[in-house]
Design brief:
Blueprint lengths: L15 H9 L24 E11 L4 E9 L10 E2 L2 E3 L7 H13 L8 E6 L3 E2 L5 E9 L2 H4 L10 E8 L13 E8 L5 E8 L13 E2 H15 L19 H13 L7 H4 L44
Parallel strand pairs: 1-7
Antiparallel strand pairs: 1-2, 1-4, 2-3, 2-8, 5-7, 6-7, 9-10, 10-11
Helix pairs in contact: 1-4
Length: 317
């Protein structure tokens, strides 16, 4: 399962800079794949790896970049009805996170793969959920949405709805009429906090009931994707909680050590681990010039290098 290389000539001229920034982005953390798992994490259970697909395309109706999202089936045992990106756990035969993301998108929403209009741009920093699953976000661009989007069909066993959202609205929620952005600062370890971002979708003509919001890990991943694409633009809201901690992939090692301390992954509930809801690695503006090392071609443009560990989980538990 593969994707073709994107020629920027296939992208509308005025959004080329944003797609180009995503294409140039180099994640500061390694891809966590079954085939090339870092030896230092050799004891981490390989079935606890996952990937999600950030499928972007140009919408001619409002001239925006859109991202494809889903709501999970109400029949699922874990997180029914919640908004998620297409994706899920890695299978033993999955060679890379890209393979996992495309395979899961095919299973969940019928994304045709391989397809000449689907182009992989980059992967974002690995995430880790409360359920100790390492999630790699894979960013792709759809160069011919008029051909591919009509083919999408929700798998009723996994997905209740397929919808889209403006990517730049994760930086400025007011770009979507009647979208309400809220935050919730959640107590965390060692007297720190984590800020959950909640993007409440407005009601529709067909229903007065508020649809499921975009929040948790899904929101964090998409905020990061928007920050990379639209750098150096910042969020119109305060991104971080006052005492939100910053760290690097040491958080993954911390999870492993905690699991070992309390008896392993299979026998230990997340509550017993005292697992944090969120961690992020230092941004360039929070490190000294002496210790700062460029991790991306976008380092000088203000593009973020955050790794976000969040309360929500995108993939099936």
């Amino acid at each position: 399962m593969s994707a073709s290389i994107l020629d920027l000539a296939q992208v509308p001229h005025h959004i080329q800079p944003y797609v180009k920034q995503l294409q140039a982005y180099v994640s500061p953390t390694p891809e966590y794949s079954i085939a090339s798992f870092p030896s230092k994490y050799a004891t981490y259970p390989k079935p606890r790896l996952a990937a999600v697909l950030i499928l972007l395309y140009h919408d001619t109706k409002d001239d925006s970049i859109r991202v494809t999202l889903t709501t999970r089936s109400m029949s699922l045992r874990s997180h029914p009805g919640q908004v998620a990106l297409p994706g899920g756990k890695s299978d033993p035969d999955d060679k890379t996170p890209v393979f996992t993301a495309l395979r899961e998108a095919h299973e969940e929403i019928g994304l045709p793969t391989p397809h000449p209009s689907i182009h992989i741009l980059t992967t974002l920093p690995a995430q880790i959920s409360l359920y100790k699953i390492i999630v790699t976000p894979v960013v792709a661009y759809l160069s011919d949405p008029t051909t591919v989007l009509p083919q999408l069909k929700a798998n009723p066993d996994e997905v209740d709805e397929i919808f889209d959202w403006r990517l730049d609205a994760f930086l400025d929620p007011s770009l979507v009429p009647r979208c309400r952005h809220e935050t919730k600062d959640i107590p965390w370890v060692s007297d720190t906090q984590w800020r959950e971002h909640i993007f409440q979708r407005p009601t529709t003509k067909s229903s007065s009931k508020l649809p499921a919001p975009i929040k948790g890990l899904t929101a964090d991943i998409l905020i990061l994707a928007a920050q990379v694409a639209y750098a150096p633009l910042l969020t119109s809201y305060e991104r971080w909680a006052p005492r939100q901690p910053h760290t690097t992939e040491v958080a993954i090692q911390w999870v492993m050590e905690e699991a070992k301390r309390v008896g392993g992954f299979k026998t230990t509930m997340k509550q017993d681990l005292g697992l944090p809801t969120a961690l992020v690695m230092p941004r360039d503006d929070q490190t000294s010039s002496a210790s700062r090392k460029p991790t991306s071609p976008l380092a000088t443009t203000g593009a973020p290098t955050a790794i976000v560990l969040s309360e929500e989980i995108l993939s099936p538990a």
